[in-house]
Amino acid sequence: MNRPASRVLPRSLHRAREELRYFLTALGYFTRVPIPAWVGHAPEQLNAATRYFPLVGVGVGACVAALTASSGHLWPPGVAIALGMAASLLLTGAFHEDGLADSVDAFGGGMTRERTLDIMHDSRIGTFGAAALILALLLKWATLASVQARYGWAGFGVVTIGAHAASRAAAISLMRTLDYVRAQGKAKPVAQRLGAGSLLFGVLCSVPWLFWPDWRAGLTAVAVLILLRSGLVRYFDRRLGGYTGDCLGFAQQLAELSIYLTVCAWI
């Protein structure tokens, strides 16, 4: 027997409000964008919000692309791209870059699992981490400059959105396979096994952006991401027996760079 529409509509609105709450939770957790107080940040919200991580990447990539293209009307492309990169760091609070630096320091300096986790937990940046961060930023600038020179600002924008979104999908995909290794930590509230439906939603939000302006580069980028994910799963499992929040940031940065490098290889 069908329920009256008057009873179905409030339930639908309630579900829509909850999904909006999860999205805003993800936005507030993964960026510096202020969110309304009613959203809250309960642990169960953070876990449910994980599937929106790639969609947040779409938003971050779109903001960065728009600001960079706008700056390109005032300054040379190289300067505009550098300003766009700075905006990305401010928008996300260098959240993922911090994971990259901490992970490289830990994996480079830790000989045992315990020592690796101790170094990763240290807020100070070491030689390995600083070198990795500088190299990553230089590679991003150089590859994005090549993309802009080949495809113009429109192509640059799509590649930027695709890289920000798909790299985040690659990062959360690790949560489908591995366990969080710390008893406590900043990623603990989101560190539950990711469901297949949530992962599929993240992939659908992100991967289609990769197929323009060159579908061949997009297919190659997807293949590279799959190989990168496989390698990271094996490496994290061997070194740590799972992952940490810094590992997710490390994976996101490597995935983003791999997309830029793959697109450039087709230019």
From TrEMBL:
Similarity-based family: Belongs to the CobS family.
Lyase in keyword set: no
EC number: 2.7.8.26
Alphabetized InterPro entries for the sequence: CobS
Entry's transmembrane regions: 20-40, 52-69, 125-145, 151-174, 194-212, 218-236
A Pfam family the protein falls into: CobS
Localization, UniProt: Cell membrane
Name this polypeptide is given: Adenosylcobinamide-GDP ribazoletransferase
Molecular function as annotated in GO: adenosylcobinamide-GDP ribazoletransferase activity; cobalamin 5'-phosphate synthase activity
GO BP, sorted A to Z: cobalamin biosynthetic process
Membrane topology: Multi-pass membrane protein
Chief localization: membrane
Primary gene name: cobV
Cofactor(s) annotated in UniProt: Mg(2+)
Keywords of the record: Cell membrane, Cobalamin biosynthesis, Magnesium, Membrane, Transferase, Transmembrane, Transmembrane helix
UniProt entry tagged with the keyword Magnesium: yes
